[in-house]
Write a structure and sequence with these properties.
The chain folds into two domains: 216 residues, P-loop containing nucleotide triphosphate hydrolases (Rossmann fold); 61 residues, ACT-like. Chain A, domain 2 (Alpha-Beta Plaits). The longest helix is centred in the middle third of the chain and has 16 residues. It has eleven helices and 13 strands. The chain is α/β, with parallel strands linked by helices and 303 residues long. It is elongated, with a radius of gyration of 23 Å. The strands form three sheets. Strands 5-6-7-3-8-9 form a six-stranded mixed beta sheet, sandwiched between helices. Strands 11-12-10-13 form a four-stranded antiparallel beta sheet. Strand 8 and strand 9 form a beta hairpin. Bound molecules: adenosine-5'-triphosphate (ATP). The site of adenosine-5'-triphosphate (ATP) has 13 residues, from strand 2 and helix 1.
Protein backbone atom coordinates (compact mmCIF):
# COMPACT_ATOMS: atom_id res chain seq x y z
CA UNK A 1 0.00 0.00 0.00
CA UNK A 2 1.27 3.43 -0.87
CA UNK A 3 2.70 5.51 1.98
CA UNK A 4 0.29 8.25 0.97
CA UNK A 5 -2.83 6.27 1.75
CA UNK A 6 -4.14 6.63 5.30
CA UNK A 7 -6.92 4.12 4.97
CA UNK A 8 -8.47 1.91 2.37
CA UNK A 9 -11.14 -0.72 2.12
CA UNK A 10 -11.76 -2.99 -0.84
CA UNK A 11 -14.92 -5.00 -1.29
CA UNK A 12 -15.83 -4.76 2.39
CA UNK A 13 -18.90 -6.83 3.25
CA UNK A 14 -20.74 -7.34 6.52
CA UNK A 15 -24.13 -8.79 7.33
CA UNK A 16 -25.97 -8.83 10.62
CA UNK A 17 -28.11 -11.92 10.18
CA UNK A 18 -30.25 -11.15 7.15
CA UNK A 19 -29.33 -7.44 7.10
CA UNK A 20 -26.62 -6.80 4.50
CA UNK A 21 -25.10 -3.71 6.11
CA UNK A 22 -22.05 -3.51 3.78
CA UNK A 23 -22.26 -4.88 0.25
CA UNK A 24 -18.72 -4.21 -1.02
CA UNK A 25 -17.44 -0.88 0.31
CA UNK A 26 -14.44 0.57 -1.55
CA UNK A 27 -12.71 3.58 0.00
CA UNK A 28 -9.32 5.24 -0.27
CA UNK A 29 -8.36 8.19 1.91
CA UNK A 30 -5.07 10.02 1.36
CA UNK A 31 -2.84 11.05 4.25
CA UNK A 32 -3.55 14.58 5.40
CA UNK A 33 -7.01 14.63 3.89
CA UNK A 34 -10.31 15.65 5.51
CA UNK A 35 -12.68 13.08 4.10
CA UNK A 36 -16.42 13.13 4.70
CA UNK A 37 -18.43 9.93 4.77
CA UNK A 38 -22.04 10.69 4.01
CA UNK A 39 -25.17 8.67 4.15
CA UNK A 40 -28.53 8.55 5.86
CA UNK A 41 -29.36 6.42 8.88
CA UNK A 42 -28.61 2.78 8.28
CA UNK A 43 -26.44 3.25 5.15
CA UNK A 44 -23.45 1.51 6.76
CA UNK A 45 -21.23 4.35 8.03
CA UNK A 46 -20.82 3.11 11.60
CA UNK A 47 -20.35 -0.49 10.46
CA UNK A 48 -17.54 0.63 8.12
CA UNK A 49 -15.78 2.63 10.85
CA UNK A 50 -16.06 -0.26 13.32
CA UNK A 51 -14.42 -2.57 10.76
CA UNK A 52 -11.53 -0.09 10.40
CA UNK A 53 -10.75 -0.51 14.09
CA UNK A 54 -11.44 -4.27 14.23
CA UNK A 55 -14.27 -3.58 16.69
CA UNK A 56 -16.31 -5.85 14.46
CA UNK A 57 -15.06 -8.31 11.87
CA UNK A 58 -16.17 -7.94 8.26
CA UNK A 59 -17.37 -11.03 6.39
CA UNK A 60 -15.15 -10.24 3.42
CA UNK A 61 -12.88 -7.68 1.81
CA UNK A 62 -9.62 -5.96 2.66
CA UNK A 63 -8.93 -3.18 5.16
CA UNK A 64 -5.72 -1.24 5.70
CA UNK A 65 -5.39 1.55 8.23
CA UNK A 66 -2.07 3.45 8.28
CA UNK A 67 -0.70 0.54 6.29
CA UNK A 68 -1.77 -1.99 8.93
CA UNK A 69 -4.31 -4.80 8.70
CA UNK A 70 -6.52 -4.04 11.74
CA UNK A 71 -7.30 -7.74 12.20
CA UNK A 72 -3.58 -8.53 12.44
CA UNK A 73 -2.63 -5.64 14.76
CA UNK A 74 -5.68 -3.88 16.23
CA UNK A 75 -3.70 -2.45 19.15
CA UNK A 76 -1.30 -0.58 16.86
CA UNK A 77 -4.19 0.78 14.79
CA UNK A 78 -6.04 1.98 17.88
CA UNK A 79 -2.84 3.47 19.38
CA UNK A 80 -2.33 5.65 16.33
CA UNK A 81 -5.93 6.70 15.80
CA UNK A 82 -8.41 8.87 17.67
CA UNK A 83 -11.89 7.38 17.57
CA UNK A 84 -15.14 9.11 18.39
CA UNK A 85 -17.85 6.44 18.42
CA UNK A 86 -21.43 7.29 17.57
CA UNK A 87 -22.48 6.48 21.10
CA UNK A 88 -19.74 7.09 23.60
CA UNK A 89 -19.80 4.62 26.50
CA UNK A 90 -18.39 6.21 29.65
CA UNK A 91 -18.44 5.11 33.30
CA UNK A 92 -21.33 7.20 34.70
CA UNK A 93 -19.72 7.53 38.14
CA UNK A 94 -16.45 9.00 36.91
CA UNK A 95 -15.95 12.74 36.61
CA UNK A 96 -15.16 14.20 33.20
CA UNK A 97 -11.55 14.62 34.30
CA UNK A 98 -11.48 11.04 35.64
CA UNK A 99 -12.77 9.69 32.33
CA UNK A 100 -10.19 11.66 30.37
CA UNK A 101 -7.39 10.55 32.72
CA UNK A 102 -8.57 6.98 32.19
CA UNK A 103 -8.19 7.38 28.40
CA UNK A 104 -4.80 8.96 28.99
CA UNK A 105 -3.74 5.97 31.12
CA UNK A 106 -4.84 3.59 28.34
CA UNK A 107 -2.56 5.54 26.03
CA UNK A 108 0.46 5.31 28.33
CA UNK A 109 -0.02 8.66 30.14
CA UNK A 110 1.68 10.55 27.35
CA UNK A 111 -0.98 13.20 26.85
CA UNK A 112 -0.12 16.85 27.49
CA UNK A 113 -2.74 17.76 30.10
CA UNK A 114 -2.45 21.42 29.18
CA UNK A 115 -3.76 20.51 25.73
CA UNK A 116 -6.69 18.63 27.33
CA UNK A 117 -7.58 21.72 29.37
CA UNK A 118 -7.30 23.84 26.26
CA UNK A 119 -9.64 21.54 24.30
CA UNK A 120 -12.13 21.43 27.18
CA UNK A 121 -12.09 25.23 27.50
CA UNK A 122 -12.69 25.72 23.79
CA UNK A 123 -15.66 23.36 23.94
CA UNK A 124 -16.91 24.97 27.15
CA UNK A 125 -16.65 21.60 28.92
CA UNK A 126 -16.34 21.57 32.72
CA UNK A 127 -13.96 18.82 33.89
CA UNK A 128 -15.47 18.49 37.39
CA UNK A 129 -19.00 17.03 37.01
CA UNK A 130 -19.77 13.32 37.02
CA UNK A 131 -20.48 11.77 33.63
CA UNK A 132 -23.96 10.73 34.83
CA UNK A 133 -24.87 14.40 35.32
CA UNK A 134 -23.86 15.49 31.82
CA UNK A 135 -26.23 16.41 29.02
CA UNK A 136 -25.98 14.49 25.77
CA UNK A 137 -24.07 17.37 24.18
CA UNK A 138 -21.53 17.53 27.00
CA UNK A 139 -20.94 13.76 26.78
CA UNK A 140 -20.29 14.26 23.08
CA UNK A 141 -17.68 16.90 23.97
CA UNK A 142 -15.90 14.39 26.25
CA UNK A 143 -15.82 12.06 23.23
CA UNK A 144 -14.34 14.76 21.02
CA UNK A 145 -11.65 15.64 23.59
CA UNK A 146 -10.59 12.00 24.11
CA UNK A 147 -10.37 11.48 20.34
CA UNK A 148 -8.12 14.51 19.82
CA UNK A 149 -6.07 14.73 23.01
CA UNK A 150 -3.16 12.48 21.99
CA UNK A 151 -2.63 14.18 18.61
CA UNK A 152 -3.40 11.00 16.63
CA UNK A 153 -2.25 10.54 13.04
CA UNK A 154 -5.74 9.50 12.02
CA UNK A 155 -9.08 10.64 13.38
CA UNK A 156 -12.11 8.42 12.83
CA UNK A 157 -15.09 10.47 13.90
CA UNK A 158 -18.61 9.08 13.79
CA UNK A 159 -20.97 12.08 13.62
CA UNK A 160 -18.64 14.44 15.54
CA UNK A 161 -21.08 17.32 15.93
CA UNK A 162 -24.10 15.23 16.91
CA UNK A 163 -26.10 16.86 19.70
CA UNK A 164 -23.96 20.02 19.85
CA UNK A 165 -25.34 23.53 19.53
CA UNK A 166 -24.37 25.50 16.40
CA UNK A 167 -21.51 27.41 18.10
CA UNK A 168 -19.99 24.19 19.40
CA UNK A 169 -20.47 22.50 16.03
CA UNK A 170 -18.38 25.29 14.52
CA UNK A 171 -15.72 24.83 17.19
CA UNK A 172 -15.49 21.09 16.48
CA UNK A 173 -15.11 21.83 12.76
CA UNK A 174 -12.31 24.29 13.63
CA UNK A 175 -10.61 21.58 15.71
CA UNK A 176 -10.83 19.22 12.73
CA UNK A 177 -9.23 21.81 10.46
CA UNK A 178 -6.47 22.45 13.03
CA UNK A 179 -5.79 18.70 13.35
CA UNK A 180 -5.32 18.57 9.59
CA UNK A 181 -2.99 21.58 9.71
CA UNK A 182 -0.92 19.62 12.23
CA UNK A 183 -0.65 16.70 9.81
CA UNK A 184 -3.56 14.45 10.80
CA UNK A 185 -5.91 12.64 8.44
CA UNK A 186 -9.58 12.99 9.30
CA UNK A 187 -12.29 10.56 8.24
CA UNK A 188 -15.66 11.60 9.57
CA UNK A 189 -19.17 10.39 9.03
CA UNK A 190 -22.11 12.71 8.90
CA UNK A 191 -25.55 13.13 7.56
CA UNK A 192 -25.32 16.93 7.86
CA UNK A 193 -24.34 18.18 4.43
CA UNK A 194 -23.46 21.75 5.42
CA UNK A 195 -20.69 20.68 7.79
CA UNK A 196 -19.22 18.28 5.27
CA UNK A 197 -19.34 21.00 2.65
CA UNK A 198 -17.55 23.37 5.06
CA UNK A 199 -14.54 21.19 5.86
CA UNK A 200 -14.23 18.08 3.70
CA UNK A 201 -11.88 18.02 0.73
CA UNK A 202 -13.52 14.90 -0.64
CA UNK A 203 -16.65 13.03 0.24
CA UNK A 204 -17.90 9.52 -0.29
CA UNK A 205 -21.61 8.91 -0.44
CA UNK A 206 -22.69 5.53 0.87
CA UNK A 207 -26.05 4.14 -0.06
CA UNK A 208 -27.34 0.82 1.24
CA UNK A 209 -23.86 -0.54 1.98
CA UNK A 210 -22.21 0.59 -1.28
CA UNK A 211 -20.15 3.71 -2.01
CA UNK A 212 -22.01 5.30 -4.91
CA UNK A 213 -19.92 8.45 -5.41
CA UNK A 214 -16.56 9.92 -4.38
CA UNK A 215 -16.04 13.57 -5.25
CA UNK A 216 -15.02 17.01 -4.06
CA UNK A 217 -18.02 18.75 -2.49
CA UNK A 218 -17.66 21.62 -4.98
CA UNK A 219 -17.82 19.32 -7.99
CA UNK A 220 -21.05 17.81 -6.70
CA UNK A 221 -22.40 21.33 -6.33
CA UNK A 222 -21.30 22.39 -9.81
CA UNK A 223 -22.95 19.35 -11.32
CA UNK A 224 -26.27 20.18 -9.71
CA UNK A 225 -29.02 22.62 -10.52
CA UNK A 226 -28.59 26.24 -9.46
CA UNK A 227 -31.24 28.84 -8.98
CA UNK A 228 -30.92 32.44 -10.11
CA UNK A 229 -33.18 35.35 -9.22
CA UNK A 230 -32.93 38.38 -11.48
CA UNK A 231 -34.53 41.76 -10.87
CA UNK A 232 -35.06 44.20 -13.72
CA UNK A 233 -35.25 48.00 -13.72
CA UNK A 234 -38.59 47.86 -15.54
CA UNK A 235 -41.04 45.10 -16.58
CA UNK A 236 -39.61 42.94 -19.37
CA UNK A 237 -40.59 40.00 -21.52
CA UNK A 238 -38.40 37.14 -20.24
CA UNK A 239 -39.37 34.63 -22.94
CA UNK A 240 -35.96 34.93 -24.75
CA UNK A 241 -34.33 33.52 -21.59
CA UNK A 242 -36.26 30.28 -21.97
CA UNK A 243 -34.29 29.67 -25.20
CA UNK A 244 -30.98 29.59 -23.30
CA UNK A 245 -29.90 25.94 -23.02
CA UNK A 246 -30.34 24.57 -19.47
CA UNK A 247 -32.54 27.48 -18.30
CA UNK A 248 -36.08 26.94 -16.98
CA UNK A 249 -38.33 29.72 -15.69
CA UNK A 250 -39.62 28.76 -12.24
CA UNK A 251 -41.62 31.93 -11.55
CA UNK A 252 -42.06 35.30 -13.20
CA UNK A 253 -43.81 37.84 -10.99
CA UNK A 254 -44.88 41.20 -12.38
CA UNK A 255 -42.26 41.32 -15.13
CA UNK A 256 -39.67 42.99 -12.88
CA UNK A 257 -38.25 39.80 -11.41
CA UNK A 258 -37.79 36.20 -12.49
CA UNK A 259 -36.66 33.02 -10.73
CA UNK A 260 -34.76 30.61 -12.96
CA UNK A 261 -33.37 27.12 -12.63
CA UNK A 262 -30.03 26.71 -14.39
CA UNK A 263 -28.51 23.39 -15.28
CA UNK A 264 -24.73 23.44 -15.72
CA UNK A 265 -22.73 26.65 -16.18
CA UNK A 266 -24.14 30.17 -15.93
CA UNK A 267 -22.28 31.46 -18.98
CA UNK A 268 -25.16 31.24 -21.50
CA UNK A 269 -27.56 32.95 -19.11
CA UNK A 270 -25.16 35.78 -18.28
CA UNK A 271 -24.57 36.48 -21.98
CA UNK A 272 -28.31 36.47 -22.69
CA UNK A 273 -28.90 38.91 -19.81
CA UNK A 274 -26.69 41.51 -21.49
CA UNK A 275 -29.78 42.47 -23.51
CA UNK A 276 -31.87 43.11 -20.34
CA UNK A 277 -32.00 46.07 -17.91
CA UNK A 278 -30.77 44.04 -14.92
CA UNK A 279 -30.79 45.73 -11.50
CA UNK A 280 -29.86 42.70 -9.38
CA UNK A 281 -28.65 39.12 -9.92
CA UNK A 282 -28.64 36.56 -7.11
CA UNK A 283 -27.69 32.88 -7.32
CA UNK A 284 -28.47 30.18 -4.84
CA UNK A 285 -26.01 27.31 -4.51
CA UNK A 286 -27.71 23.97 -4.04
CA UNK A 287 -26.86 22.50 -0.66
CA UNK A 288 -25.06 19.18 -0.60
CA UNK A 289 -28.27 17.97 0.98
CA UNK A 290 -30.23 18.65 -2.20
CA UNK A 291 -27.56 16.94 -4.28
CA UNK A 292 -27.43 14.02 -1.93
CA UNK A 293 -31.19 13.50 -1.96
CA UNK A 294 -30.92 12.71 -5.66
CA UNK A 295 -28.93 9.60 -4.74
CA UNK A 296 -31.73 8.41 -2.52
CA UNK A 297 -34.75 9.16 -4.65
CA UNK A 298 -36.99 6.15 -4.80
CA UNK A 299 -35.60 4.58 -1.62
CA UNK A 300 -38.78 5.30 0.31
CA UNK A 301 -40.77 3.35 -2.25
CA UNK A 302 -38.36 0.42 -2.02
CA UNK A 303 -38.72 0.57 1.78
P1 LIG B 1 -26.66 5.87 11.42
O1 LIG B 1 -26.51 7.17 10.69
O2 LIG B 1 -28.06 5.61 11.85
O3 LIG B 1 -25.65 5.64 12.50
P2 LIG B 1 -25.13 4.11 9.71
O4 LIG B 1 -24.93 4.59 8.31
O5 LIG B 1 -24.01 4.31 10.65
O6 LIG B 1 -26.44 4.72 10.29
P3 LIG B 1 -25.00 1.33 10.45
O7 LIG B 1 -25.17 1.62 11.91
O8 LIG B 1 -23.66 0.91 9.98
O9 LIG B 1 -25.49 2.57 9.57
O10 LIG B 1 -26.08 0.23 10.05
C1 LIG B 1 -26.15 -0.40 8.79
C2 LIG B 1 -27.28 -1.43 8.80
O11 LIG B 1 -26.93 -2.49 9.68
C3 LIG B 1 -28.62 -0.90 9.29
O12 LIG B 1 -29.62 -1.55 8.56
C4 LIG B 1 -28.64 -1.32 10.74
O13 LIG B 1 -29.96 -1.51 11.19
C5 LIG B 1 -27.90 -2.63 10.72
N1 LIG B 1 -27.18 -2.90 11.97
C6 LIG B 1 -26.19 -2.16 12.49
N2 LIG B 1 -25.71 -2.73 13.63
C7 LIG B 1 -26.42 -3.87 13.83
C8 LIG B 1 -26.41 -4.91 14.81
N3 LIG B 1 -25.53 -4.88 15.82
N4 LIG B 1 -27.28 -5.90 14.67
C9 LIG B 1 -28.16 -5.96 13.63
N5 LIG B 1 -28.22 -5.01 12.66
C10 LIG B 1 -27.37 -3.98 12.76
Amino acid sequence: MSENIALMTQGLTKSYGKVRALRGVDLEVQRGEIFGFLGPNGAGKTTTIRCLLDLIRPDGGTVRVLGIDPQADPVEVRRRTGYLPGEMQLDPNMTVEGALRYFNALRGNKVDWGFVRQLAARLDLDLKPAIKNLSHGNKQKVGVVQALMHHPELLLLDEPTLGLDPLMQQEVLRLIIEAKANGATIFFSSHIMSEVEAVAERVAIIRKGIVVEVAEPVSLINRALHRARIRFKQPVDVSPLTNVPGVTVLSHDDGTSVLLQVEGEMDGLIKALAAFPVSDFETERPSLEEIFLAYYEGDQKEG
